[in-house]
Design brief:
The protein has about 170 residues and is of the alpha+beta class. Helix content is about 30%, strand content about 15%. The protein is built from 6 helices and 6 strands; from the N terminus they run αββαβαββααβα. A 6-stranded mixed β-sheet has the order 1-2-3-6-5-4. A hairpin with an 8-residue loop joins strand 1 and strand 2. The radius of gyration is 16 Å and the shape is globular.
Amino acid sequence: MSPRIAGFRWLTPQDPLDERIYREILADGCAILSFNGSPTAPEFTYSVGLYLNFLHPEVLLMGLHPDTAAGIIARLRDEADRGLMMEAGSVRTDLFEDGRPVRFIPAPQERYLDYLGRNCSFYFSLFVPSIPVPDFHFPVLQGIWPDRQGRFPDEPDCDPRFAAIHRLTPQP
């Protein structure tokens, strides 16, 4: 209950999911949330509490089965607990069994409300309203990996269907 972030305040949980998130953050270091896909967006999973407990960026993974994504985030949480920190641009080849690389890029803050709503609520005491994009004062790294031809979603020749899985588009 003693935050490592200046200005952070624990807010009163608003619903049973908030209560679960708080319990997991306090017991495990972070909560891991998964959400079903929609016709316009893939399923996605993210952490809540990595930044609070370890000063490690929160992690967002798109288009993975929730169990796979949760396993990756739990591993990153355990590493953060040991002092290992991911930074923007980090590439890991040990997160998937097949050794495919995962690059971590900053998630755009203009999409935080679309995909990271529980993080936005949790870190609300750090929120700074501004125009045109609010500053939420917590970092998020999105993990991306290459298509079958070895091109990452942010590269021009990447399979467009694959790139769309990683693109943060507004939720309907």
